[in-house]
Specification:
With about 475 residues, the chain is an alpha/beta fold. The protein has four domains: about 100 residues, Hypothetical protein, domain 2 (Endonuclease III, domain 1, Orthogonal Bundle), CATH 1.10.340; about 110 residues, Helix-hairpin-Helix base-excision DNA repair enzymes (C-terminal) (Endonuclease Iii, domain 2, Orthogonal Bundle); about 120 residues, Nitrogenase molybdenum iron protein domain (Rossmann fold, 3-Layer(aba) Sandwich); about 100 residues, Rossmann fold (3-Layer(aba) Sandwich), CATH 3.40.50.1980. The protein is built from 22 helices and ten strands. Bound molecules: iron/sulfur cluster (SF4).
């Protein structure tokens, strides 16, 4: 299920069983496969398709509004930002959490009716609202377990801890459960259960001193919960665009650290701890976070960082990206290491396909990246190759050199790009350079599209195509 289908199904699930939603969605998605088609839908047609889920008029109105809002505000895509998601029609906190966790791998713990009941019976919370139960659970369990725990508690609530007839005698969590042991009045039914006889208890379940922490382990084993693949589970990324890529791939739950420059998507700024900068990460902090993989890039992070990680026995992987083709290689490499090879392959193959075609020699293009002193991205860098792919001719010395005023003039650029980062070029700089190079075109451009490889390479190619005189042919 893609993010769009997931958000639609979750909106439909309000006051409705999952089985009913599953019966409804195939016809709905066949008729409205994306936000664009839903935005144009007729109210009566959507009502007819979702009638059996209850509250169908309201749900139909919300779904059409959802499609329209996605088209108007997010180019038809479901946003991964909690605030933007929560602002969509029909999407409350619970729906937002479900979508964040399941579509984007964002650690979140949406409390539905099953989780609310099971958590209170297990004594994990005494709160009386889903929001407060959620807060209690989030306090008790490590962030990386939230998504798994969400599914485990729902599964347990459906299969074992039924609302009216909990199967306490065969429950694998009985020894952890004050309600099942008769120590607590059932907060759901308001009665005290008679404890099961010792011989009726399932074997192999021990009473724990720390029930909160043990529950996940027991539940994983007993309930057939997720089996962790051998891929890394605690990742620190020291590369801003790689951090963003991991979130795009739904691996946010495994991100335990980032640099202070890893700031996209915005919500990670408040949820994932920082470990310093890209050039000078805090190695002690990295060690304390006990990562099983640190991701690096050879231009972005100094070799000394990799050496220090090796000395501490922390595994690392360093990418090397100078061209757009390197991105395809890096996508596959990361996909294999992180256990998302299929996702990576689709993106790498699409990227390679977009590079096919004859290249022409377009305007001499200078991509400046800094002022005082001037610095540019040379033809042998990733931004240089991005421009070359669409027929522009990147100019300048190799790598990221500094340039004097006279060296700048000697390059005789026909197109000058002023990105919004790393230096924040503005209209004043644009006007100054335009005066100095009256025959050149001077453009302010999106710095992240130009320099953030992997997570924004497609956006970078789109930007370069928009600048190229051969955009129709490339
Ligand atoms: S012991 Fe009973 S009440 Fe407790 S979690 Fe198991 S089924 Fe639910």
């Amino acid at each position: 299920m893609d993010p769009f289908q997931l958000v639609v199904a979750t909106v439909l699930s309000a006051q409705c069983t999952d089985a009913r939603v599953n019966l409804t969605t195939p016809a709905l998605f066949a008729r409205y496969p994306d936000a664009a088609s839903l935005a144009e839908a007729r109210q009566d047609e959507v009502e007819a398709l979702v009638r059996s889920t209850g509250f169908f008029r309201n749900k139909a109105r919300n779904l059409i509004g959802l499609g329209q809002a996605l088209m108007a505000r997010h180019s038809g895509h479901v946003p991964s930002d909690p605030a933007a998601l929560g602002a969509l029609p029909g999407v409350g906190q619970k729906t937002a959490n479900v979508v964040l966790a399941n579509a984007f791998g964002v650690p979140a713990l949406a409390v539905d009716t099953h989780i609310f009941r099971v958590a209170r019976r297990l004594g994990l919370s005494t709160a009386t609202t889903p929001e407060k139960v959620e807060a209690d659970l989030c306090r008790r369990f490590p962030r990386e377990d939230w998504i798994g725990l969400h599914h485990q508690l729902i599964f347990h609530g459906r299969r074992v801890c039924d609302a009216r007839r909990p199967e306490c005698a065969s429950c694998p969590l009985l020894d952890l459960c004050p309600t099942g042991l008769g120590e607590l009045v059932d907060p759901h039914l308001g009665v005290r259960f008679t404890p099961a006889l010792e011989g009726q208890r399932p074997s192999g379940v021990r009473k724990s001193d720390t029930p909160g922490m043990t529950l996940t382990i027991e539940a994983s084993a007993s309930l057939g919960g997720r089996q962790r693949p051998p891929s890394p589970q605690r990742i620190i990324s020291l590369v801003p665009s790689v951090t963003e890529l991991l979130v795009q791939w739904g691996l946010a739950a495994h991100l335990v650290g980032r640099t202070r420059y890893c700031i996209e998507p915005r919500w990670i700024r408040t949820t994932i701890p920082t470990v310093g900068g890209t050039k000078d990460p805090d190695l002690g902090r990295i060690r304390d976070l006990a990562p099983d993989l640190v991701l690096l890039e050879r231009d972005e992070n100094p070799k000394a960082v990799a050496d220090a990680l090796t000395a501490m026995g922390i595994p690392w992987l360093a990418l090397e990206i100078h061209t757009v083709k390197d991105c395809a290689v890096a996508l596959r490499r990361l996909g294999a290491v992180l256990g998302v090879l299929e996702t990576a392959e689709v993106r790498a193959a699409a990227l390679e396909l977009s590079l096919k075609g004859r290249r022409r020699k377009g305007p001499r293009t200078l991509a400046l990246i800094w002022r005082d002193p001037w610095m540019c991205a040379g033809p042998d860098t990733y931004p240089g190759d991005l421009l070359r792919q669409t027929g522009l001719t990147p100019i300048g010395p190799a790598r990221y050199p500094t340039l004097t005023d006279s060296e700048l003039e000697a390059l005789a650029p026909q197109l000058i790009l002023l990105p919004s980062e790393p230096f924040r070029f503005n209209q004043r700089h644009q006007a100054g350079l335009q005066k100095r190079f009256p025959d050149a075109v001077v453009r302010l451009v999106d710095g992240r599209a130009l320099t953030w490889y992997l997570s924004r390479t497609e956006a970078g190619l789109e930007l370069a195509r928009s600048l190229s005189p051969f955009s129709q042919q490339t």
